[in-house]
Amino acid sequence: MQKIIAIADNQKKQEADFNKAYEHMNEKLEENTRSVIEHKESIDKCLKIVDEIIAENNRLSHKVSELERKIEDMEQYSRLNAVEIHGVPESKNEDVVQVIKDVGKGLDMDITDSMIDACHRLGRRSEPGSPPPGIIVKFVRRLDKEELLKKRRVKSNFSTRHMNLTMDQPVYLNESLSPTRRRLFAEARKAKKDKGYRFLWVRNGKILMRKEEKSPVIQVTCQADIANL
Fold it and tell me: Nearest-CA neighbor of 114 among 124, 127, 100?
């Protein structure tokens, strides 16, 4: 009888220990569940903050791009009356204004002092044997700049001999482009060759392309425009 009672007591003790262990395990499970929920809420908050930061970064990047575009447009606008002349040899103690007058004379256009706002030679290239630095001239009136470029387009074979110089080498006149637009024009020139475009030109600071004679004119404003040709 005592053995039966001992067995019953031992069983009750085991059941009590089991129940205690079960309750402890259940408490731990609830504690872990709460911890998981708290971690999830914390992660959700972090992800929300990251999303907000990404959105703000995108907004600021867009704003910076817009500001850069406006600055670029302003810089290009300041060059609307300017022409770059390349191919004219440089002489010692030269009078750049007189050189510009000689270019005008060679193109049958009378350029006077009052028409010129400012002019100077561009920076010298360091490579030996490089061509002479170009000349940039800013006219007082845009009409005079456009007239000079028009005269150059008419006289397509214009060279130093038309300026009464002894050598005979081509002289090129182009609209003055900002550094950013100049790089874009170089990329467009490469794309013109690679993608079989026939026409590429600049008009009032705008880079324009045309596939064929009657194809629509495409304005190149960024790298994406070149990629989409």
Answer: 100
Q: 116 φ, ψ to 5°?
A: -100, 125
CB burial of residue 216 (10 Å; 0-12, 13-18, 19+): exposed
Give the distance, in angstroms, between the CA of residue 168 and the centroid of all CA atoms in the same chain.
38
Residues of the chain whose pLDDT is less than 50?
none
| Residue type for position 106 | G
pLDDT at residue 91 in the model: 87
pLDDT for residue 125? 62
The pLDDT assigned to 216 comes to 94
Give me the pLDDT at residue 80, please: 93
The C-alpha atoms of residue 98 and residue 114 are separated, in whole angstroms, by 13
> What single-letter DSSP state applies at residue 80?
T
Task: Find the DSSP H helices in the chain.
Answer: 2-77, 96-106, 142-154, 179-194, 223-227
Contact 201, 104 (CB under 8 A): no
Q: Is the dihedral of CA 190, 196, 200, 206 positive or negative?
A: negative
Residue 25: its pLDDT value, please?
78
Nearest to 174 by CA among 87, 72, 99: 87
Whole-number Å distance between alpha carbons of 62 and 29: 49
Report the alpha-carbon distance of residue 16 to residue 5 in Å, rounded. 16
Give the predicted TM-score (pTM) of the model: 0.68
**DSSP annotation string for 20-42:** HHHHHHHHHHHHHHHHHHHHHHH
Q: What is the CA radius of gyration of the chain?
A: 38
